[in-house]
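Two proteins were folded this term; both appear here.
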Amino acid sequence: MTTTGFVYIWEYLVKEECLEEFKKAYGPTGDWVQLFKKGIGYNFTELHEDVSNPQRFITVDFWNSKTDRDNFRNQFSKEFIALDKRCENFTAQEKLIGDFYCHTNRF
């Protein structure tokens, strides 16, 4: 059965010297996932590496709803900001691709 969830997607250009740190922090058991797990409605995160550019990545964070993600951001804003500040040194550029409804059977 297909259900509707919510994802938000970010694109990153990672500094070459920070690739391993970035993958560790943004990967499926990384620091971001550990923080997101504190939120109600969080499901999982995917980290995708560009086939033609090993410094370009996207993350896809799966939530039950946009409301769950927004509530998490409000409840854990201090922890989110601190982790974001620490991780910003890994990237040369980051860009929000957007918020999307997700039609999947993975939930």
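Next, the second protein.
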Amino acid sequence: MRWFDNTALTLVIIGAVNWLLIGIFQFDLVAYLLGNLSWFSRIIYTLVGLCGLYLITLFGRIQNTNA
């Protein structure tokens, strides 16, 4: 399951960098690379969101390992 954690974390970091670019420069890197709300870019946005939700469980796993 560690590979999935690393993959999810990588996708969430990519999403965070994309939001940073949107916030500072009003530049959407995913839309630029894949098309503005094309089916593929929507899949990327969905995967990033699902990985973000999955990583919420990281808080519980961190607390369990520190106890």
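The chain has one domain: 2-66. The chain has a mean pLDDT of 90. These notes refer to the second protein only.
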